[in-house]
Design a protein that fits this description.
The complex is a heterodimer.
Chain A: E1 4-7, E2 10-13, E3 19-25, E4 31-38, E5 42-49, E6 56-57, E7 65-67, E8 73-78, E9 87-94, E10 105-106, E11 110-114
Parallel strand pairs in A: 2-11
Antiparallel strand pairs in A: 1-3, 3-8, 4-5, 4-9, 5-6, 7-8, 9-10, 9-11
Chain B: E1 3-7, E2 10-14, E3 19-26, E4 30-38, E5 45-50, E6 56-59, E7 62-66, E8 70-75, E9 84-92, E10 98-100, E11 104-109
Parallel strand pairs in B: 2-11
Antiparallel strand pairs in B: 1-3, 3-8, 4-5, 4-9, 6-7, 7-8, 9-10, 9-11
């Protein structure tokens, strides 16, 4: 059971380039999330999805887009990368919201540098 | 606005030296407080979830407790393998997201 898998693990971009981060989960979870983690800031929610075909904005959505065409996949896109988007990106999933279903399970992260 | 503050930022212990990590929170209605462990270069790993004041949970050398304003993660007789960053997060009744603290970096020396 792989859990939550993120691709790629590392990436270096130039300012203005675009890229897509892929998150795949094999736990049949309804909810999926994208976070960024910066030193001294803690994990901050970018976008999330409550089910296939749905997406919603989180705390810091500007400059990012997401899609959830299949239940098991959640894509995070950067259309025109900026140095401020240099960060570690984590994907997470959870079965739901009630009680123990609210536990979020995280991937290993994607380390992105924008030069 | 929901807020989570963790202290201390960093803690250095000798093997076997017990201590506690603090997580203070402000939410309008708590729907869960979560503790995660994060090793360098890895994603957060779930440890505990607590839902009501007075609740306690244990796992090996770790014990999490909850009051109406804060949570403690007690580490009893820690070992070097307990070295990690410990993250605290809360979920509010009105939101579908977790609000994370900035974490406590724990280093346990042999």
């Amino acid at each position: 059971n792989a859990g939550v898998t993120q691709t790629p693990k590392f990436r270096v971009l130039k300012t203005g380039q675009s890229m897509t981060l892929l998150c795949a989960q094999d736990m049949n979870h309804e909810y999926m999330y994208w976070y960024r983690q910066d030193p001294g800031m803690g994990l901050r929610l970018i976008h999330y999805s409550v089910g296939e075909g749905t997406t919603a904005k989180g705390e810091v959505p500007d400059g990012y887009n997401v899609s959830r065409l299949k239940k098991q996949n959640f894509l995070l896109g950067l259309e025109s990368a900026a140095p401020s988007q240099t960060s570690v990106y984590f994907c997470a999933s959870s079965p739901g919201l009630a009680g123990a279903k609210n536990i979020q399970y995280f991937g290993a992260g994607t380390r992105l540098s924008v030069l | 606005e929901d807020q989570v503050t963790q202290s201390p930022e960093a803690l250095r212990l000798q093997e076997g030296e017990s201590s506690s990590l603090n997580c203070s929170y402000t939410v309008s209605g708590l729907r869960g407080l979560f503790w995660y462990r994060q090793d360098p270069g890895k994603g957060p790993e779930f440890l505990f979830t607590l839902y009501s004041a007075g609740e306690e949970k244990e796992k090996e050398r770790l014990k999490a407790t909850l009051t109406k304003k804060e949570s403690f993660l007690h580490i009893t007789a820690p070992k070097p393998e307990d070295s990690a960053t410990y993250l605290c997060a809360v979920r509010d009744t009105g939101f579908q997201k977790l609000v994370f603290g900035t974490g406590t970096r724990l280093l346990v020396s042999p």
